[in-house]
Specification:
Length: 416
Amino acid sequence: MDKLLITGGRRLSGEIAISGAKNAALPILCAGLLTAEPVALSNLPHLQDVSTMLRLLRQMGLQVEQQDDRCTLQGNAIDKLEAPYELVKTMRASILVLGPLLARFGEARVSLPGGCAIGSRPVEQHIKGLQAMGAEIKIEAGYIHAKAKRLKGARIVTDMITVTGTENLLMAATLADGETVLENAAREPEVTDLAKLLVAMGARIEGIGSDRLLIQGVAALHGAAHAIIADRIETGTFLCAVAAAGGDVTLQNTRSDILDAVLDKLREAGVILTSGSGWVRAQMASRPKAVSFRTTEYPGFPTDMQAQFMALNAIAAGTSRVTETIFENRFMHVQELNRLGAAIDIEGHTAIVHGVEQLVGAPVMATDLRASASLVIAGLAAQGETLIDRIYHLDRGYDRMEVKLSAVGADIKRVQ
């Protein structure tokens, strides 16, 4: 099993190219199920989760042609309306095939997602929304079995803001009969990116970027071309790495306008940030200042950046309070950071981080995707060697992170 070996204490300098967003790529790939015509995608990131999704779609009969960061999907020969447990258990985003299959083919059989390290992430909102659109849904032997001759437009108010729920119901509504209103919709940039592709495919959607989406169903969607949005979480992660290790790094192929809450906190920590069309530059010459924050839905502070900022706070001057409101188990990186010499206490959903002047390298273990990123950041700032185990979590959501960091001066390598 691969591990990462980091020798800390080196300043970062140079340029990093940001990849396409994982959280946009996964629903966008599923949108290929909605039409028989070709959907041409670019800026597709090289990630384990993307490979898993493509494997799932291929086994349904979706034809996939892939070259570098480009991919063409052709859905004219789909013959298996099922997402089996073996594939769904490794990636919860597999639930996103449910809406498209049901809308276009009138039936879907999708395994319930397995447990997730960071929290429960229930699928009830997906099911409730599809039932409101007229679907008959049974849960049998661990599978969601859904049927509908044709989905009907409906007004759907979800009990909570759910990103994948919004995406699933949005895709289903594009082919429903009549008008669907999605209230309390997620406003994340990745949802907006999916909506833009759907419009390019002929969907009629109003309110894109807001918490109220109005969809007029059409009889069929057609092919389209689309470039996947830059990964704002990868961008934020590398900015935190510069803040922790020090240095001067410019991130290319990215956007600062979808990262406001994160950039505000980095400035508060003492990072000098400048940005323009397609780039963000971070300069850091001093010890970071402690920053307190509370995770919440977009446009607030993203839960997917909480662990990375925890690593930054661990070496910051002062004490910070980090409150997690989205996932109940998202503090598993705390004990690993404490192994490196951090001083973090947990009180319920809040972590109190007492900044220390220096972390010291040690063997640590990644527990989930963003936790592994926090350990990389901590390792870059720590004295001596940090060995990170179970980095398959990292590969799910970061495109060759160690290669990108090595290019800006980090001493980081993948070892067996």
